[in-house]
């Protein structure tokens, strides 16, 4: 099993097997290899993944950690045993005859892959392989090999093999008087690429039969073990189909203690049964109404998966459900989760469910059960989805909202959010994508937090802190500010004839909202309809009791008096938010200089980009240099053609441009001299050719060597 590696990323090649023995049926003496085939059908996708993770990646990681990073092709010679794959040897090469069956299956340009390895950018330029093809190569050896053998024997039939559409790789050959003759033990290999192994072997054997030299030795059964393996009538299994019941069982055993730690009065939170039980009487309820809620986390999951941060997303799931049922005044009693994936990664799932269990403890509810669904083909590798279900209870006389009590002049109390919570992330991701930042960009004064970390700040859970206040009888309504923002959630707990007027200057808007507003160029309505803008929940209380209720909340949470209830005029908006723009702009300077501030690189390298056309690559370079972590600054764009789109892209980004038309110069050297003069004028330190369709002259290349 071979792979490319740039010292960090590995890119496995299709597994190949060679045949060392000289004769059919693996008889005769050992050789350097009499043929090979690829891919090896005996290696399942699961086993290949195990080899990738446990052998190839671990080896590359270990060498890097020891200070000797390895770049290039890593060749692992493996033996399959009943205890799994074992390493026989490592080599720093492609291997012969493995190379002759692996490289013909490469779809993209080998040179590009090699450059990506050298430049440590393999992750962005991974090799692509023909998946529905098999390759077989057969070695033709000299008579007497691996002992003494004659040389100088004429080889015929090479053109015939080529006509059959086969590749002939020369090893022990040379030219003598215009003829190809033998000059080594293993003379050449004939490679066939077909849709299956059996056909590939037949075609390779046809090629070998067409080529002649005196005493030629070759095998006719290359890949015979693999062909026998493919012919076996094997019954399908659930695991073959992509569902690993054993992995699911392992996960259940790992999360059982996590769930048990959430037990409370009314249940013991033991997993494993068909259903979970809850005793309302044991929980102290006399005349309860059951309240249920369900939710997910949305595309915040995408950020967690990109950042490989799975420990906090569980709190988002729990919070979205338990904060909703608080709107009825309900105490959350128990929680159920649903975890869906294409292939179960026990470690990732355990991390997510550990976060769910920890959040259940914060909410005061039991993790009573759940479902792990492994569904091959439904989700790409590394992706998963979550859903949660909370059930709570409230005594019949304490239900919210109490619509008949709400009156003109009631006060609105806003309780602080921890940030974006779990809504609006499709818009957040689009804003980040179009900005000069990415999720790994450092933010904050010290730069010790990334933008991804900041956006993954978990949603606040309000049940334990707000439930005593809601049960006091002083609160007329509670609204969870979730999807739909301030504009759409507050009306859900008000009578039709009432609305609210809020003043955004009365509460602290977290800087992340100011940054999103500025970077996304969002309207006031878009901000207040999509995001919570710093308010995670609102309570409606009588004016005379407002200060007392506020003090009770402020013992646990940041909270403010943010507005009042008003009688609604016909056709008026249910929610008006005054001063939102002023509040966002008041924090904008903070967002630039403190929290959302990447570490700016000093002494950036001055780059000139040479183009000839649309500037597709130029656009990517401009976006890259806008990132605060970039070491480059594009100071000039030069084109050898006037009026091309690339020049307009540069001008839109405020980058100086020059047109130097090659047709106006008598020689390449004169043209290059004109380019060089402009580069000197702009004190350029590095030249980047991005779709530049001119050959540069020797003197120019020599002057700018390494730059």
From TrEMBL:
Question: One of this protein's GO BP terms?
Answer: adenine biosynthetic process
Which coenzymes or cofactors are required?
Mg(2+)
Q: In which pathway does it act?
A: Purine metabolism; IMP biosynthesis via de novo pathway; 5-amino-1-(5-phospho-D-ribosyl)imidazole from N(2)-formyl-N(1)-(5-phospho-D-ribosyl)glycinamide: step 2/2; Purine metabolism; IMP biosynthesis via de novo pathway; N(1)-(5-phospho-D-ribosyl)glycinamide from 5-phospho-alpha-D-ribose 1-diphosphate: step 2/2
Cleavable signal peptide = none
Pfam families, per database record: AIRS (PF00586), AIRS_C (PF02769), Formyl_trans_N (PF00551), GARS_A (PF01071), GARS_C (PF02843)
Provide the alphabetized UniProt keywords.
Answer: ATP-binding, Ligase, Manganese, Metal-binding, Multifunctional enzyme, Nucleotide-binding, Purine biosynthesis
Q: Which PROSITE patterns match?
A: ATP_GRASP, GARS
Q: Among its keywords, does the record have Metal-binding? A: yes
Q: Which molecular function GO terms apply here?
A: ATP binding; metal ion binding; phosphoribosylamine-glycine ligase activity; phosphoribosylformylglycinamidine cyclo-ligase activity
| One cellular component term from this protein's GO annotations in UniProt | cytosol
Residue span(s) of domain ATP-grasp? 72-119
Cite the CDD domains for this sequence: PurM (cd02196)
Say which domain of life the source belongs to: Eukaryota
Keyword hit for Metal-binding: yes
Q: Where are the transmembrane segments?
A: none
List, alphabetically, the PANTHER family matched.
TRIFUNCTIONAL PURINE BIOSYNTHETIC PROTEIN ADENOSINE-3, TRIFUNCTIONAL PURINE BIOSYNTHETIC PROTEIN ADENOSINE-3-RELATED
Name the protein family: In the N-terminal section; belongs to the GARS family.
Name of protein: PUR2 protein
Q: Please give the organism.
A: Calonectris borealis
């Amino acid at each position: 099993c071979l792979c490319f590696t740039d010292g960090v990323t590995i890119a496995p090649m299709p597994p190949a097997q060679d045949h060392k023995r000289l004769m059919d049926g693996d008889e005769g003496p050992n050789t350097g290899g009499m043929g090979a085939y690829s891919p090896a059908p005996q290696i399942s996708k699961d086993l290949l993944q195990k080899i990738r993770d446990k052998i190839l990646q671990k080896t590359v990681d270990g060498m890097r950690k020891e200070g000797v990073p390895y770049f290039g092709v890593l060749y692992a010679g493996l033996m399959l045993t009943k205890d799994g794959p074992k390493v026989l040897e490592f080599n720093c090469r492609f291997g012969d005859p493995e190379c002759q069956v692996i490289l013909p299956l490469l779809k993209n340009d080998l040179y590009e892959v090699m450059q990506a390895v050298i430049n440590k950018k393999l992750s962005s330029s991974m090799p692509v392989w023909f998946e529905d093809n098999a390759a077989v190569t057969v070695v033709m050896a000299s008579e007497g090999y691996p002992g003494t053998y004659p040389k100088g024997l004429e080889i015929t039939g090479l053109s015939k093999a080529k006509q059959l559409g086969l590749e002939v790789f020369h090893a022990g050959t040379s030219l003598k008087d215009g003829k190809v003759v033998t000059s080594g033990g293993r003379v050449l290999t004939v490679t066939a690429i077909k849709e299956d192994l059996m056909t590939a072997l037949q075609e390779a054997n046809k090629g070998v039969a067409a080529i002649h030299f005196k005493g030629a030795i070759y095998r006719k059964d290359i890949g015979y073990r693999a062909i026998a393996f493919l012919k076996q009538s094997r019954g399908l299994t659930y695991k073959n189909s992509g569902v690993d019941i054993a992995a699911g069982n392992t996960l259940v055993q790992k999360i059982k203690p996590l769930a048990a730690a959430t037990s409370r009065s009314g249940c013991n939170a033991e997993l494993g049964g068909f259903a979970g039980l809850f005793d309302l009487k044991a929980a102290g309820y006399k005349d309860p109404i059951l309240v249920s809620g369900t939710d997910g986390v949305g595309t915040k999951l995408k950020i967690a998966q990109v950042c490989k941060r799975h420990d906090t997303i569980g709190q988002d799931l729990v919070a979205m459900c338990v904060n909703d049922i608080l709107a009825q005044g309900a105490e959350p009693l128990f929680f159920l989760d649903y975890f869906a994936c294409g292939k179960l990664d026990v470690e990732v799932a355990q991390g997510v469910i550990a976060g769910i269990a920890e959040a259940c403890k914060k909410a005061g509810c039991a993790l009573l059960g759940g479902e792990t669904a492994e569904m091959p083909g439904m989700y790409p590798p590394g992706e998963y989805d979550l859903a949660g279900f909370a059930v709570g209870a409230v005594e019949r006389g304490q239900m919210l909202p109490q619509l008949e009590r709400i009156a003109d002049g009631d006060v609105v109390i806003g309780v602080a959010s921890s940030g974006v919570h779990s809504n609006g992330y499709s818009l957040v991701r689009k804003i980040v994508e179009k900005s000069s930042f990415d999720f790994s960009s450092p933010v904050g004064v010290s730069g010790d937090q990334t933008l991804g970390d900041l956006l993954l700040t978990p949603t606040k859970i309000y049940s334990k802190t707000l439930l005593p206040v809601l049960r006091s009888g002083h609160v007329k309504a509670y609204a969870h500010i979730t999807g739909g923002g301030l504009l759409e959630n507050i009306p859900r707990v008000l009578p039709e004839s009432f609305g609210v007027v809020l003043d955004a200057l009365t509460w602290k808007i977290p800087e992340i909202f100011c940054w999103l507003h500025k970077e996304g160029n969002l309207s006031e309505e878009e901000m207040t309809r999509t995001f919570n803008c710093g308010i995670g929940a609102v309570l409606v209380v009588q004016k005379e009791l407002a200060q007392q209720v506020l003090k009770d909340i402020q013992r646990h949470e940041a909270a403010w008096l943010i507005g009042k209830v008003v009688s609604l005029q016909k056709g008026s908006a249910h929610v008006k938010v005054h001063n939102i723009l002023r509040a966002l702009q008041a924090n904008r300077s903070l967002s630039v200089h403190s929290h959302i501030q990447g570490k700016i690189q000093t002494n950036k390298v001055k780059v000139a980009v040479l183009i000839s056309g649309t500037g597709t690559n130029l656009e990517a370079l401009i976006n890259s240099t806008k990132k605060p972590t970039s070491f480059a600054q594009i100071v000039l764009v030069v084109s050898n053609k006037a009026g091309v789109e690339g020049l307009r892209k540069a001008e839109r980004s405020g980058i100086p441009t020059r047109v130097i038309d090659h047709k106006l110069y008598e020689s390449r050297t004169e043209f290059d001299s004109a380019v060089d003069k402009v580069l000197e004028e702009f004190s350029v330190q590095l030249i980047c050719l991005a779709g530049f369709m001119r050959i540069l002259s020797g003197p120019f290349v020599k002057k700018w060597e390494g730059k």
